[in-house]
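Q: Hi! New to this. If I give you a protein sequence and the SMILES for flavin-adenine dinucleotide, can you show me the bound structure?
A: Yes, paste them in.
Q: Okay, here:
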Amino acid sequence: MPNFDYEAPTTLKNALKFLSEQGEIRPLAGGTDIIDQLKSNRRNADLVVDLKRVPELLALELTDTQLRIGSAVSCTEVHKLTAENGCFPALSEASELIGSIHIQNRASIGGNVCNAAPSADTIPALLVHEAIAHTTSTEGERRIPLIDFFAGPGQTVLQKGEILKELVLPTSSPNAASAYLRFIPRNEMDIAVAGVGSLLEVDPVSGVVKKARIALASVAPTPVRAYAAEQFLEGALIDNSSIGKASDLAVDAAVPITDVRGSAEYRKELVKVLTKRTLNICLERLA
Ligand SMILES: Cc1cc2nc3c(=O)[nH]c(=O)nc-3n(C[C@H](O)[C@H](O)[C@H](O)COP(=O)(O)OP(=O)(O)OC[C@H]3O[C@@H](n4cnc5c(N)ncnc54)[C@H](O)[C@@H]3O)c2cc1C
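A: Thanks. Here is the predicted structure of the protein with flavin-adenine dinucleotide bound:
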């Protein structure tokens, strides 16, 4: 591995000071992406700043109105909190399927987001739950709707010296449910050929959809929302027919590539199938 300096600050102020220095400075949370990227020369660094000892970035708080996830909080902790409280189900299941138990214990949700892989599993779940990225730097703070956070494969809108501080997700209505599914050729330890997160809020009396959110992974240079499908569902009666039509429309948001894991056509078919399945799971959870 190429040589680099390493710092592990214990305050946010010191972390931001290191991050604003000259040269190629890389934040590290769990290191499950960045260490491999440095080893294989896909990224370079003069200085790696370990964020796992900064208290603000390790905060995890669930209130009646929101879930706050510090950017260095592990997938394991997020899964545990959401599973125990029966909330944010799409995020709960996405954080439980990243890599293995060992990876989940190290890997952070923030690292999954900042690595900005089109295949990242937690991102569709965060998108359907309308996560806001709170960033910080020596220049100040920003709040960015997560859908606007990605600039391309492996690229975010973060500026030099700016880090993700936390992700904030509003609590869903009691009449809403979410789900995340991905397709991988093996049972685990693989990258999604396609992934779909869905959230449905349905009026319990009329059966009319009040809110629909559908987000896709691995089918575009960045994670995407399936806006046409969402708009079709909102105001529609939820049944097999509207779910089928929405699943067809979700494919319009996919602009996949053909690669070793699957052809573009195959990925589009997966989007249709996974959208239908996740919407049906949402309905089952609302029953
Ligand atoms: C064996 C294995 C299996 C895996 N399986 C999956 C899988 O199933 N699904 C999946 O989505 N991913 C998977 N991954 C990828 C990886 O584990 C996840 O992306 C993980 O969530 C990254 O988190 P981390 O804390 O380890 O990030 P790190 O490696 O520490 O950081 C990732 C990137 O984000 C940057 N970064 C980290 N924190 C911040 C911050 N606060 N602000 C700004 N930038 C920051 C880093 O500089 C780096 O560029 C796997 C990896 C391995 C090694």
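A: The two ends are 53 Å apart (CA to CA). Let me know if you'd like me to explain how to read the tokens.
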